[in-house]
Amino acid sequence: MESFRGVPGRLELVREVRGVKIYNDTTATTPEATIAALRALGDPPSLKLRRARKQNIVLIMGGADKGLDMRSLVREIPKYCKAVLLLAGSGTENFRFQISDFRFKDREAKSLREAVERARDAAKKGDMILFSPAFASFGMFKNEYDRGERFTRLVRTL
């Protein structure tokens, strides 16, 4: 079991750069899947100490609309994320308005490369970059696997 490295594109640790862990969760094409990733990686509050969560995730997300209810994801993002980078897509257009009043500025990235570079710039030692789109890959990529492979290649060049 110790040799099992996980499944590519499913909360896969791609690499660590200057103390920042970078995860590829390209198969997360629903808000529930992205919430699960945030909760798995996020710093849960201690019940005894009642301390706040550490918001140390830079989330890269966005893509084609599947008509899903995003309200639960909108509620979870501020609990875990210090920044959100949005990939262009029909779902992103609507989602941007739902998170417009968050304390951080969402940034739309014109390409996956731009999103990865901006995420790298926003993350500090001890943070994580999470690519968990919550939307379909149509338009910018052939499919979710193409999207994930491109992300992994970009991360390996950092």
TrEMBL record:
One of its GO terms (biological process) is regulation of cell shape. One of its GO terms (cellular component) is cytoplasm. SUPFAM superfamilies: MurD-like peptide ligases, peptide-binding domain. InterPro entries: Mur_ligase_C, Mur_ligase_C_dom_sf, MurD. Residues 9-134 form the Mur ligase C-terminal domain. It comes from the Bacteria. Pfam families: Mur_ligase_C. One of its GO terms (molecular function) is ATP binding. Keywords: ATP-binding, Cytoplasm, Ligase, Nucleotide-binding. This is Mur ligase C-terminal domain-containing protein. It comes from Candidatus Lloydbacteria bacterium RIFCSPLOWO2_12_FULL_51_9. The lineage of its organism: Bacteria, Candidatus Lloydiibacteriota.
